[in-house]
Amino acid sequence: MADLKYYDVILKPVVTEQTMNDMADKKYTFYVHTDATKVQIRDAVEKMFEGTKVEYVNTINLKGKVRRRGATSGLTAKKKKAIVQLKAESKEIELFQGM
Asked: Which domain holds residue 23?
């Protein structure tokens, strides 16, 4: 298990049509460190974004895709996605306000 600080857990937000529609229900999607646990993700969101309270966290492990370059083939890096549901009384995340 890696010794992760809260600022190392969240890598970047996932911006797609589906994630933008989920923001109306206070669900936010992030790419996170592959060794991060749900508790670490919850703590990182609450510390990085003031006034947010996390209700629950769902995580998805994504395998790397097979890519070829000539005769050699390999895999891209694996990723982990986290869908964070905020509580009703929680503030929204300002990062997504202008989108």
From this structure: 6-88
